[in-house]
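[step 3/7] fold_predict: job queued, chain A
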Amino acid sequence: MFYHRDLMPKTLEGQITMEKTPSYFVTREAPARIHAMSQETKLIVVVRDPVTRAISDYTQTLSKKPDIPTFEILTFKNRSTGLIDTSWSAVQIGLYAKHLDGWLQFFPISQMLFVSGERLIQDPAGEMARVQDFLGLKRIITDKHFYFNHTKGFPCLKKPEGSSKPHCLGKTKGRPHPDIDPDVVNRLRDFYRPFNKKFYQMTGKDFGWD
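[step 4/7] structure written:
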């Protein structure tokens, strides 16, 4: 963590330096290390329906390793009993309440902003307004900076006038998901429901995944 800080540019008064590493939220050692570096750090976490993100995670892995077992096989320790394999990273990452518990030992919830991945697609300007307010920034990014790319299924960011093409998510984003057995999806939803409910209570925000 201190190694990363040494790689960052010098931050002048009135400036904000950001570092983006998604795995920090689920890495057990990260909260203590970041707290040791700076107790004033503000944390932004983008979350989405844990079932959808598990399927998305599997889809990305499948594109690199087409010979891996099916999603249905990897989801269960025992398919007949319905026992979910929580050691599988695609499932484990979606236990947001569990991960948040570790962060709350070092940071108050007031220093955390949880951005809805679904809302980020449906209303990117609205979610970005929350981010800018959270960081104490003037609302510069608004509706006029986005347009929806129907091919990707995601919004794209318009660059300033006179610049090149708009910035859209890379080719690894927006892949069609494989068809998953609906019974497996329903079992996963049942599995995540109590964890989601606790996460809603902890954050004070209902993300509507149920």
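[step 5/7] annotate
The mean pLDDT is 88.
The CA atoms of residues 131 and 137 lie 8 Å apart.
exit 0
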